[in-house]
Amino acid sequence: MSNRFHLAVPVFNLVEATSFYCDFLACTPGNYETKKWQDINFWGNELTLHYSSNRAFRERHSVDMGEVCVPHFGIHLIREDFNQLKERIINNEKITFFDDPYLRFFDEPREQETFFIEDPSKNVIEIKTMKNPETLFR
Prior knowledge:
This protein is an alpha+beta fold. It contains 2 helices and 10 strands, in the order E-H-E-E-E-E-E-E-H-E-E-E.
């Protein structure tokens, strides 16, 4: 048995959302039920896209470096993969940053760079890279 995180999120267009995660973010599709849900291999974790016509509630919460959108979910990437994805967004006319890249905890052991994007259904995703990932749960 492996330790994988599972998250199910609502999407308003299953085809468009699947394309965003698989074609743009380069994740891979998994199990599905036609017109109902689609599993995505979200960097080794199970993200399930569920078709929904309901709009999700969200708000901003004050954290150390600004106002963070809640709810959100995300992934920690190695620096190389983080930089590649950041450049792909910078050079894309349709996908933009929800919150621009910024550095948190500069020159501390927990230093990290982060940015936020939205999927086509307005689910907010945080992408981050940590200078010292081993400090995450200290």
